[in-house]
Amino acid sequence: MAEHGEYVKACGICHLEAGEGVPGAFPPLDERMTRWSGTEQGRRYLVNVVVNGVNGQLEVNGVSYFSAMPGMAHQLTSGQMAALLNFVIVQFGDGEAVFTESSLDEIRTTNGAVSSLGLRPN
Predict the structure, then answer these.
(1) Which of 34, 48, 77, 84 ranks highest by number of CB atoms within 10 Å?
(2) Third-level CATH fold of 4-110
């Protein structure tokens, strides 16, 4: 699993060190991550966001967010992305690690370059 410092460097710049996000700009990383990681659709969405990024408007906990998150496919390996997703799920969602390098690669292949917003679960 990723270390706190790796999270801060890759994700904490926008989502902040404790995952609370910035209202209106960057959503919090919270229990939704655990809920989503428990379904195939949710896992596809989480992987797609990290791989391809997400652009556009979303609503989280009644707050609208409009910003862009760049994809990290060219910055991080599949193993690093799996470790970061697991860190967020465990640290901020109080869930269990569900991603491995091979499961992340499998989802990446299935997803292709599809828009993240189209995959977002409720």
Answers:
(1) 48
(2) Cytochrome Bc1 Complex; Chain D, domain 2 (1.10.760)
